[in-house]
């Protein structure tokens, strides 16, 4: 099963100015998050950010924040507790006409179709064992497909980060890397954005 850019959304969790200096391998984690957001922008993949208690921890990295369509300020560790799922799956648009006038099999298809058609959530962030983990687990519970970008995730300690990855994999999340995401979104070297994406990941 490969990622599809047309079915994907990117969520970047809590890359905050006051938090990042404490994160294990923080500069590399942040660089990969920026790369992911730039690739997403090139390929028209929606990008969302979150910030944990920004009045205490400050805003997200400015360059990363600028690449997000919207940024959710939150006090819960899980962004899904504060409305992220509604951003990712907005309310269904009202249907024109009377839906009951459709044949029954078409009514059923319409009810079951994922809203907006972007059910694959590519997610990365800090801290991996707290806000990233809780957000990702809640998104799985909300029946999204969750893809965790491991080289763009961080915690203060390597052990905490790796424990989060073990738990997420056990819960059904796919573990990927920044380059896996980029090249699966592209699918081939004939994609019009291939050279631009290649320049970002190299």
Description:
This protein has 202 residues and is α/β, with parallel strands linked by helices. The protein is globular and about 45 Å long. The chain has helices at residues 26-42, 54-57, 62-66, 84-88, 104-112, 128-141, 158-171, 178-186, 194-201, and strands at residues 8-13, 47-52, 70-74, 120-125, 145-149, 174-176. The longest helix has 17 residues, at 26-42. The chain has a six-stranded parallel beta sheet, with helices on both faces. It has nine helices and six strands, in the order βαβααβααβαβαβαα.
Per-chain topology:
Layout: E1 8-13, H1 26-42, E2 47-52, H2 54-57, H3 62-66, E3 70-74, H4 84-88, H5 104-112, E4 120-125, H6 128-141, E5 145-149, H7 158-171, E6 174-176, H8 178-186, H9 194-201
Parallel strand pairs: 1-2, 1-4, 2-3, 4-5, 5-6
Helix pairs in contact: 1-9, 6-7
> Would you report the number of β strands?
6
List the helices and strands in order.
EHEHHEHHEHEHEHH
Average predicted confidence as pLDDT: 90
The largest sheet, given as strand count, sense and whether it forms a barrel, is:
6 strands, parallel
What oligomeric state best describes the polypeptide chains here? single chain
Treating each run of at least 4 consecutive H or I residues as one helix, how many helices?
Answer: 9
Given helix and strand content, the structural type is alpha/beta
In the sheet with the most strands, the strands line up as 3-2-1-4-5-6
Spatial shape:
globular
| DSSP strand content | 15-25%
Low-confidence stretches: 107-115
Determine the fraction of residues in helical runs and give it as a percent range: 40-55%
Ends: how far apart?
Answer: 25 Å
Radius of gyration: 18 Å
């Amino acid at each position: 099963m490969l990622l599809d850019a047309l079915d994907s959304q990117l969520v970047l969790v809590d890359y905050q100015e006051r938090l990042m200096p404490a994160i294990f391998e923080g500069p590399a984690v942040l660089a990969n998050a920026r790369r992911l957001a730039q690739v997403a922008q090139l390929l028209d993949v929606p990008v969302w950010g979150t910030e944990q208690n920004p009045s205490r921890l400050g805003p997200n990295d400015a360059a990363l924040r600028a690449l997000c369509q919207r940024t959710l300020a939150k006090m819960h560790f899980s962004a899904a507790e504060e409305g992220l799922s509604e951003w990712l799956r907005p309310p269904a648009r009202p249907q024109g006409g009377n839906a009951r006038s459709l044949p029954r099999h078409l009514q059923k298809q319409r009810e079951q179709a994922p809203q907006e058609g972007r059910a694959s959530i590519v997610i990365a962030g800090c801290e991996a064992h707290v806000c990233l983990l809780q957000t990702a687990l809640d998104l799985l519970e909300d029946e999204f497909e969750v893809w965790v970008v491991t080289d763009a995730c961080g915690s203060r300690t390597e052990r905490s980060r790796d424990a989060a990855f073990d738990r997420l994999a056990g819960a059904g999340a796919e573990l990927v890397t920044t380059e896996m995401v980029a090249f699966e979104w592209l699918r081939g070297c004939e994609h019009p954005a291939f050279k631009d994406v290649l320049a970002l990941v190299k």
